[in-house]
Design goal:
With 133 residues, the protein is mainly α. It contains five helices and no strands. The chain has one domain. The structure holds protoporphyrin IX containing FE. The site of protoporphyrin IX containing FE has 21 residues, from α1, α2, α4 and α5.
Length: 133
């Protein structure tokens, strides 16, 4: 399996779900709260599927695949920085979905601010900092 290709596919996936997430915020700004919820349900499912796919590749199918690839490109620190954003963002996804569905409005909005910072960090470090070739 080609680590560079897997990273490129992940970058495209992160870009695609980010478009969905932005659309959900536009829906919110237009007062279409239910649509915001629907879009974010898709955002949650697709992001989780990509994460599980990545974990299966990195830990079961080809353990050590990314280690070698990133070491050769002196990018292991970049991965560490990326994980500082992406891991808490992934954990917060569950909190966001739960608080949204339960209408814990204040908590959902406050967590949403933190989630936004973490997601933007995930996007920037993942797409621009990590090498894919
Ligand atoms: C910047 C990020 C976000 C902000 C500011 C935000 C804000 C809001 C607000 C104001 C509501 C209406 C709450 C109510 O009146 O009870 C809402 C509903 C909801 N949000 Fe978010 N949200 C964000 C991100 C997310 C994310 C990432 C998810 C899921 C992964 C999510 C899932 C939902 C769901 C399922 C609802 C309920 C929709 C419905 O009433 O059918 N939100 N959100």
């Amino acid at each position: 399996m080609d680590a560079g290709l897997v990273i490129l596919i992940l970058k495209i996936a992160v870009g695609a779900v980010t478009v969905l997430w932005i659309a959900s915020l536009v829906a919110l700004a237009l007062g279409k709260t239910r649509l915001h919820g629907r879009i974010n349900l898709a955002f949650f499912a697709l992001t989780l599927a990509a994460l599980i796919g990545l974990e299966v590749i990195a830990n079961i199918i080809s353990p050590g695949l990314f280690d070698e690839f990133l070491q050769a490109r002196d990018a292991k620190n970049m991965l560490r920085i990326h994980l500082c954003f992406s891991m808490p963002a992934a954990a917060l996804l569950f909190v966001m979905l739960f608080t949204g569905l339960k209408h814990h409005r204040r908590f959902h909005i406050a967590t949403g601010v933190l989630f936004s910072v973490l997601w933007i960090g995930t996007f920037v470090t993942g797409i621009f900092f990590l090498p894919h070739e």
